[in-house]
User: Fold these one by one.
Assistant:
Number 1:
Amino acid sequence: MNYLKRANELAIANVEEGGQPFGAVLVKGGEVIGEGVNELHITHDVSGHAEMIAIRRAQQKLQTDHLQGARMYASGEPCPMCYAAMAFVGIDDVIYSASVEEAADSGLTRSKEIYDDLKKSHTERNLIRSEQQKIAEISPLQVWQNK
Ligand SMILES: [Zn+2]
């Protein structure tokens, strides 16, 4: 099976059903362990990206926190959220069809905006204002370290 072609077919079918043009196929050991399409239009869940859904299904199927050795095939270059999820779960290989820049040219600009913002230092980022505040109570990290 051509997995990238499959991801693109899922993406096109999703557009025809009112969704965004994103599909993903997650493969390990020559077996499809998860698939997904962008379900934002159905679930109104920000984590409903094709890659996140493919990962979620694979983790549920395999009952594992780690997916080392899996390869993600995605119709579009993963957004920062999906990129981070892939890194958290140990996927170190992705093949995509359309780039983030090409998605932006099609009017889907958010991934490129976030990637551009992440290139800046903490103080120069402008999508989300963040500030660290210390409180003089027991730190959850200290509890974690002492356990
Ligand atoms: Zn994403």
Number 2:
Amino acid sequence: MDSLTLTPKAGPPLQHLHSSCPICGGTSLNPLWRVHGYSIVRCAGCALAFVQNILTREELASHYVQGGDPVYSEVNRECLGYYYTKLRGLIEARYARPGRLLDVGCSGGWFLDAMQGWECHGCDIAPPEAGPGQRHGDRFFEGDFDAYPGRDGFFDVITMQDVFDHMPQPLAALAKCHRMLKSGGLLVVKVHNISCLYAKLSGPRFYAVIPPTHLFYYDRNTLSSALSRSGFRVVESRFIAHQLQISTVFMRLSRDNERSAFRHLYKATVGRPLGNIRIRKNLHDVITVLAVKRDSQSWAPSPSSPSWQAAL
Ligand SMILES: [Zn+2]
């Protein structure tokens, strides 16, 4: 899903606001920031930060164009591979033999390529033109995850990398993952960490605060809470280093603003020797959580969460 990017002109809808926290159902919501015209609040109950404006599927779709994020592009494949190698190691530490894997929001399908030996499936709402369908055939589904036709108890592993913070109904997405995983199956969720020092120092200028592209701003605690409410047990939580090109750093710092000085630096360096220099980054600004599907006998959905109804 990170192959999508925000178009600059559309403004936020003003009339529809969340009156309660989509994760814990708490109704005490404190204003945090106003960014790009959107209201970002923090739940007093569980500390989750999120965009209070409720956007319809059509409104969200109108904010996206294809192929805008150079991180998820063929030229950045080797940088992506740096993280994928580490993630494959974490997954295979738990599986003696390769199984069946789904990558939600798989973009160009490079993680599927990196998991060679596994039966790899993927879906993405807007893959790049030379997309995963060419290499993975009918194991790739183009469309919204809501519409993904996965069978219950089918997958050993489901991954959501840089996609969960885009999802307007996070508990519904987790409920779907829970259904599609085998008993004891593994869910991997990678999101930006709003509680890292860099984010705290940057406040609303943190590079990942880009509503409505990112609708939710998680940290280790709020992500763990969402997972445990959805029938998962967190087994591992890691800050894994990433490799980035210098030009990508400028692009991230521009935060979708075409007029930003960083956007000019990005345009001046992309594809050039300076822009192609790779750096290793680990500011604890990205968190990767591994969680295991709990048996249905030991878990029941929380009745306190109003969003759970939408998830069924
Ligand atoms: Zn809450």
